[in-house]
Amino acid sequence: MNRAPWALRAGEFILRGVCRGLPAEKAEDCFAEWAAELPAIWDDEALPRWRASTRVLAYCLGQRRTAGFLVPPPDDDSAEMLRAAPLIAAALIFVFDDAHGLVGDVGTYTAELLSVIAVFTLWPRRTKRKNGSRGSG
C-alpha cells in the first residue's frame, strides 16, 4: 500500500490525466516537473494539513490550464470564417444602424445577440485526441 498522503496521490492522478493530452515528448517532462512540486507544497510547515491539501489539488487543476497552452493549435481550421460570421453580421448591423438609422431597435437587439453568439463561437477551443493517440496528429 502506498503511504503517501491522499492529497499527493490524488494530485499525481490528476497530473497523469493532464499529461495524457500533451504530445509524447512533453508529457514525461511536464509530469516529472509538476509532480516534483507536490511534496514542496505539501510539506509547507506554515499551513495546516487541510489547506496544504487544498493547495496541492488547486495546483494540479491549475496545470490543466497550462497544459492547454502547451498543445499546438490545429494546422487547418477551414471553419474559422464560418465561426466569425456572427461577429461580422453584428458589425455590419451596428455600422448601418448608426450611419443610416435603417434598422432601429430590432437591429440593435439583433446585433447585441449576434455579438454574444460571436463570443462563444470564437472562444479558443481545445484540440481533442483521436483513437487514444498522443499529440496532435
Number of helices: 5
- Main beta sheet: strand number and arrangement? none
The value of Rg in angstroms is 23 Å
Alpha carbon gap, first and last residue: 38 Å
Oligomerization category of the chains in this entry:
single chain
Assign an overall shape: elongated
Binned strand content: under 5%
What is the average of the pLDDT values?
Answer: 76
- DSSP, total strands: 0
Helix content: 55-70%
* SS class: mainly alpha
Q: Which stretches of 5+ consecutive residues score pLDDT under 50? A: none
Order of H and E elements: HHHHH
Give an overview of the whole structure.
With 137 residues, this protein is mostly helical. The protein has five helices and no strands. α1 (6-20) packs antiparallel against α2, α1 (6-20) packs parallel to α3 and α2 (24-42) packs antiparallel against α3. The longest helix has 22 residues, at 49-70. It is elongated and about 70 Å long. It starts with 5 loop residues before the first helix and ends in a 16-residue tail after the last helix.
